[in-house]
Amino acid sequence: MTDLVLSLLPLALGVVMSPLAIMALVAVLLSQRARVNGVMFLIGWALGVFIGVFASFAVLGFFEVHERNAPPLWVPIVRLLIGIFLLLGAVWIYRRGRAHTLAMAQASSPTEVTAAAPQLPGWLKSVETFTPTRSLVLGTGIFLLNPVDLSCAILAALDVRLAALDTTTGVLVLLVFGLVGVLPIGIPVVLVLVKGEAADPALHRIRAWIASHTSVLNAALVLVIAVLQLQKAVSALLAY
Question: Quick count: other Cβ atoms within 10 Å of Cβ 122?
Fold first, then answer.
């Protein structure tokens, strides 16, 4: 179990340190109807996290990787491909991610949020105000359509499957993993629910801090995750 927790920790941090998600949330919380829009964004983000994690867990269950003496060959190959993708993602985040984060830091409408995060649904480009439904879709889409976040969810589900835990324990582990991923989005929402417009200065400070500091940290974290996955993949392939 200790090895499992250690393997899940960087993946959980990869979800927690999602600057575009927090930036989009801040834009939602500074909009009209901030309380209801913020809650809907939080619900959408939670849906995205848990759909990504448990859908991956369910799909991997069909392959019965945990019931074999050694994982099948496709497991290290998948790790290798995801590791390479995350390695390239770390380079992209370092070189271009800051520009997207800075653009999101100025966003105040769905149009501007979508321009800063082009993986989001195109229909958001045609509207100028946040609504509960758009905030819900925004929260879900920012996770499920972000390849880095989704890769962390897939890898977490794979590690839990390979740990050969019983189904109940595996689900509980992934539930905790998902809750950790939801926590950084939940805190600003609770702040607005409690303080209302008085929370605006704190939200602006959060936005400014993330725009200034997280790109390098996020790139470094993704690089660590990539190296860990590549090491596991190469070790497994050499054992064949």
Answer: 8
The upper half-sphere exposure of residue 210, i.e. CA atoms within 13 Å in the direction of its Cβ, equals: 26
Q: Six-digit token pair at 156?
A: 């977490």
Q: Residue-wise pLDDT tens for the chain (240 aa)?
A: 667 887 898 888 888 877 778 888 888 888 888 899 999 999 999 999 999 999 999 998 887 665 555 678 888 898 999 999 999 988 887 776 666 677 767 777 777 777 776 666 666 655 567 889 989 998 999 899 888 889 999 999 999 988 878 889 999 999 999 999 999 899 999 999 998 888 888 888 887 777 666 677 778 888 888 998 899 888 888 877
Nearest Cα neighbor of 203 from 37, 15, 13 is: 37
Please answer whether residues 183 and 22 qualify as being in contact, where contact means their C-beta atoms are separated by less than 8 angstroms.
Answer: no
* DSSP 3-state of 234: helix
* 124 neighbors 111 (Cβ within 8 angstroms): yes
How crowded is the C-beta side of 149, counted as CA atoms within 13 Å?
26
- Could you tell me how many residues make up the chain? 240
- pTM above the 0.90 mark? no
Please report, for the chain, the start and end positions of each structural domain, with discontinuous segments joined by +: 2-238
Q: What's the token pair of residue 45?
A: 């983000």
